[in-house]
Amino acid sequence: MRKNWIGYAFISPWLLGFLIFAAIPFMTSIYLSFTRYNIITPPHWVGLANYHMLLTGDPQFWKSLGVTFRYAGAAVPLGIVAGVTLALLLNLNIKGMAFYRTIFFLPSIVPTVATSVVFMWILNPQIGLVNRVLKMVGVDGPAWLQSSTWAPWSLVLMSLWGVGGSMVIYLAGLKDIPVHLYEAAMIDGAGPLQRLRHVTLPMLSPVIFFNAVMGIIGVFQYFTEAYIMTHGGPEDSTHFYALYLFERAWRYLDMGYASAMAWVLFLLVMGVTGFMFWGQKKWVHYDG
Amino acid sequence: MTDNANKLLRGVLAVATVAAIAVLTIKVTARPPDPPKHHRIPVRFWHMWTGEWTPVMNHVVAEFNASQDKYEVIPLLVPSESGSSNNASSKFLLSVAGGDPPDCMAQWSQAMSAWAQDGILSPIDPLMTPADKAAYAKCYPVVRKNGWYKGHLYGLVTAFDVYACYYRADHFRQAGLDPERFPSTLEDLIADGRKLDKYDAGHSLVRMGYMPETFTNYVPAYGGSFYDESTGKILVDTPANLRAMSSLVKARDVVGNDKVVRFESGLNSGDAGNWPFIGGQVSVQLDGEWRVQQIAQFAPNLDYRIAPLPPPSGGKSLSSFSMVDYLTIPKGAKHPEGAWEFMKFWAGLSDPARAAKYKVWFGWLPASPEMAKAPAFQDFVHKYPQFRTFMDLAASDNIEATPPVPLQVYWADRVQAADDQAMHGTLTPKQALDKLQQELDREAARRKELGYEE
Fold first, then answer.
1. How many A×B Cβ pairs under 8 Å?
2. What distance, in Å, lies between the first and last C-alpha atoms of chain B?
3. Can you list the alpha helix ranges (DSSP code H) found in B363-407?
């Protein structure tokens, strides 16, 4: 018994931190989502009013949800393709590979704020690097972040900049694939593409699935880049769900409404993740 | 070297490293020395004036402290994002929620009514003596119409921005225009703007003559408004507002939205000496009074003039939208009386001539006719005759303000979105205003359903 207490005492910093900064706020937000609350005056119970208005009387909610889903639909698959491709290239046996791996991994550890500020310049339609390069080959580049058509795609493009983080995980997955499978495939006469299709990708599928789930959870919380680079514009084209939630909470001091939004988001993420887990049986292979 | 010696050396190095980090950490995180103890009552004051404005702000505080034997203002700079008050507002709101707010805070956020309704601010008028009220009544209309909610004053206007046309005399001459004869109508000004435009060989704009932008800034000139005083509600979908938005869209279409967007994306931020007007990328710019001081500081030889925004046909002259800096007393302030002493000192209710000096230091406008007549302002106008236009605007009745309703922050965001959609051509001005009105009505209904008192 005494031993138990000593153990609890040792983990108490984490335990207290978790309770105070995660568990209690998490549970409190359930209650707050049924109230009108502005952080100054005590919460006032309004029942299901926040949820009702969210689902039936707030077009901005649906619009921000649409923006987030569209981004997820583009950024997550592209991120997977780019990450896997990069990992395959960096898995080749050529000289200086450690250097290349470091170079491709580095962007993923640059703070998002710094990356965002740099990309605002890179994508500047008038003086940005991308349009200057395009102009050199005779292409008049788009207005990127200043265009409601191109702004979401600019953010998708930018998301590939940080693909090094998932690339390292793919690389570790590739290293885990038993060599004898490739040897057997080669004996059977399989070419490089067939080995990729029938050995590498199936064996890598658990890692791809993991990155897909993490990617989906990440894009549903997409905030920093939009907050810094576009403020949700132009024309609400990058008004992501998390950004709208933040505005409701801190600009309009509608904490109850924002809490309701947070719980809808939580259920959505759980739903999508659950759907992915249900679907993974058909394409993820766990046995070697 | 033996293993033991190696271990000893590594141990010594590790201890030395930890000790060095500890010393550095303690040095960095050590609390600054406590301010000297005084017998005066401390009044904690938060503000957001960074850069070249911080010494000016500190100077005003020093003058107040020198004049006092009861209170001592302790200023604290709460930095915010450039051009926004978001960060500082969040810190302020958390301080109120935590029960330890400053006694006084300068606010840029146009959210006095919203914060008043939310119980974040304390009303100021109960602290006003009859003499204070009499002094307040002598202030310009723009000062008196801002900061109120449900019959109580929550924000004392310490500064207000109004907008007039800065124009480059040298560019006018280059384009064959007479800088001494500024266009008398907005339509003529827009037409002259095209004569002042400059393009490079690739047909990209390199100089913008004049482009009317920001819907709110042009509504007053068209006789429009955002607030229906008879109902106490926001009203945006009006014929005058529609005329304003339509004219802005029309002016933009002549150059082409894409060209304008690309040109503006390449401009500097506009802070201090980086203002594109100083850089020569813009010939005529509708901007605020504080730029006079900045031009004097960063481009003293600039050949420029200032004129009021010319009215459109059938519109109002000497008109402008206004953005206001407030002094507020948060709920839970420990020394509201001390805060009020400082507020009226700085805003000029207790001594307009003395406060005139502070306004001039900031490059701001006088709050009352009496202040305008003070030697400090007369000297300033003598030194910078361009400032006279703003002095005239300050006294005008045609100055519009943010609607004094709790919905005002949402209003500001959605107006900007509607402006954006109309300028990009996604919606016609009529559609944009209809949609805006629907959004505002829907939000008002939502708040009503939640039990907010509007």
1. 84
2. 82
3. 369-372, 375-383, 388-394
- On whether the CB atoms of residues B117 and B453 are closer than 8 A, the answer is yes
Question: What is the C-alpha to C-alpha distance for residues A285 and B359, in angstroms, rounded to an integer?
Answer: 72
Q: Rounded to a whole number, what is the distance in Å from the CA of B265 to chain A's nearest CA?
A: 6
User: Per residue in B100-137, pLDDT tens?
Assistant: 999 999 988 788 888 999 899 999 999 999 999 999 99
Determine, for residues A250 and B442 on separate chains, whether the beta-carbon distance falls below 8 Å.
no
Q: Count up the domains in chain A and report the number.
A: 1
Hey, how many other C-beta atoms are within 10 angstroms of the C-beta on B33? Answer: 6
Structure confidence by residue, pLDDT tens digits, A196-223: 999 999 999 999 999 999 999 999 999 9
Cβ-defined contact of A148 to B424 (cutoff 8 Å): yes
Amino acid at A139: V
A19 belongs to a structural domain: no
Predicted structure pTM score: 0.85
> Is there a domain that residue A62 lies in?
yes
Q: Write out pLDDT tens, residues B20-35.
A: 555 444 444 445 444 5
Q: Cβ of A143 and B261 within 8 Å?
A: yes
A-chain CB neighbours of B90 within 8 Å are 250
How much is the average pLDDT of A4-16? 92
Q: CB–CB of A36 and B452 under 8 A?
A: yes
Q: Which residue type does B51 have? A: G
- For testing the chain B interface, which of A50, A63, A253, A261 should be mutated: the one with the most B CBs within 10 Å? A253
For B121, which DSSP code?
Answer: B
Set of chain B residues whose Cβ sits within 8 Å of the Cβ of A148: 424, 426
Within a domain: A211:
yes
Domain extent for A98: 55-282
Do B446 and A40 make contact, defined as CB atoms within 8 angstroms?
no
SS3 B394: helix
CA distance B72 to A169: 59
Give the distance from residue A125's alpha carbon to the nearest chain B alpha carbon, in angstroms.
Answer: 6
Selecting from A53, A235, A247 the residue whose C-beta is nearest the C-beta of B446 gives A53
- Per DSSP, helices labelled H in B299-363 are 336-347, 352-362
Task: State the CB neighbour count (10 A cutoff) for residue A280.
Answer: 18
Residue B91 backbone class (left: φ over 0; alpha: ψ -120 to 50; beta: rest): alpha
Check CB contact under 8 Å for B261 and A125. Answer: yes
Q: How far apart are CA A252 and CA B408, in angstroms?
A: 9
- Any idea what DSSP says for residue B332? T
Residue B330 DSSP symbol: B
Place of tokens 């997955």: A173
Q: How far apart are CA B54 and CA B48, in angstroms?
A: 8
What string of H, E and C letters represents the secondary structure of A76-128? Answer: HHHHHHHHHHHHHHCCCCCCCHHHHHHHHHHHHHCCHHHHHHHHHHHCCCCCC
The token pair at B49 is 């004036």
Q: Quick: pLDDT tens for A114-161.
A: 999 999 999 999 889 999 999 999 898 999 999 999 999 999 999 999
User: Domains plus CATH for chain B?
Assistant: 41-161+322-400 (3.40.190.10), 163-321+407-449 (3.40.190.10)
Q: Do A57 and B410 touch (CB under 8 A)?
A: no
Identify from A45, A146, A149 which residue to disrupt to test chain B contact, counting B C-beta atoms within 10 A and taking the largest count: A146
Write the residue in B261, B442, B450 that is nearest to A36 by C-beta: B450
Does residue A21 lie within any of the structural domains? no
Chain A contacts of B114, Cβ < 8 Å? 252-253
d(CA B435, CA B222): 21
pLDDT band at B52 (very low <50, low <70, confident <90, very high): confident
Q: What is the CATH number of the domain that holds A78?
A: 1.10.3720.10
Q: Say if CB B327 and CB B106 are below 8 A apart.
A: yes
State whether A46 and B410 contact (CB < 8 Å). Answer: no
